[in-house]
Amino acid sequence: MQHVVVMGVSGAGKSTTGEALARHLGWPFVEGDSFHPEANVAKMRAGIPLDDDDRAPWLRALADEIARNEALGRPSVMGCSSLKRAYRDILREGAPRVRFLHVHGPRELLESRLSHRAGHFFPAKLLDSQLAALEPLAADEDGAVVDMALSVEDQVRQALRLLGLEG
């Protein structure tokens, strides 16, 4: 059994790609943003970047959710920025096999998406803080990278192939 965390900075399309991947696999999708404590949401709404102390309880809650699915014998797909390896290490504590799918793309596309996104608590001006914190997957981390400029269907096809989840 395994769990796939769809990662990337805000605006990359983690939720859209993650939901599509989960639908294709028949696995539940977990929206990581819904686990943020209200204090984190308020801080981001105010344009203040989260720090490691802000993220720690949120990441532990997400690792607990992965563990809950693991205990139920149910694989899952989760959307979570997972910007740093240390954050991914916390998520990996949730189950023996937690993999990552990094949805990545150019700054211009990220800015465009964020400027056209309505109703989300993350303001576009925080993009720089996320890009500065982002640590791409290391060679020894179980995961793959897909291009956010691809259609969602192509991202899912590529993810299935790269993660060996086809057929």
Tell me about this structure.
With 167 residues, the protein is an alpha/beta fold. The protein contains seven helices and five strands; from the N terminus they run βαβααβαβααβα. Strands 2-3-1-4-5 form a five-stranded parallel β-sheet, with helices on both faces. The relative contact order is 0.24.
The N- and C-terminal alpha carbons lie at a distance of 15 Å
Going by helix content, strand content and strand pairing, the class is alpha/beta
Q: What is the H/E string?
A: EHEHHEHEHHEH
Rg is 15 Å
- Count the beta strands: 5
Spatial order of strands in the largest sheet:
2-3-1-4-5
Figure out the total of helices.
Answer: 7
Instruction: Report the helical percentage.
Output: 40-55%
Q: What is the makeup of the main sheet?
A: 5 strands, parallel
Mean pLDDT: 91
Low-confidence stretches: none
Quote the beta fraction. 5-15%
Rough shape? globular
Pathway: Carbohydrate acid metabolism
Keywords: ATP-binding, Kinase, Nucleotide-binding, Transferase
Protein name: Gluconokinase
GO molecular function: kinase activity
Which SSEs are present, and which pair or pack?
Elements: E1 3-7, H1 14-25, E2 29-31, H2 38-45, H3 52-71, E3 76-79, H4 85-92, E4 98-104, H5 107-115, H6 127-133, E5 143-147, H7 152-162
Parallel strand pairs: 1-3, 1-4, 2-3, 4-5
Helix pairs in contact: 1-7, 3-4
EC number: 2.7.1.12
GO molecular function: kinase activity
Enzyme class: transferase
